[in-house]
Amino acid sequence: MTKNGQKLYNLLAPSFKGLTPGLPELCNLLARHARTYNRIQEIWCSVELSPTATKWYEHREELIEKRIVELVRALPRVKGKPIIVRFTGDPRGYCVKLIMPDERYNTWGGAEDGIGIPCER
Question: Residue 115's pLDDT is what?
Answer without folding.
Answer: 95
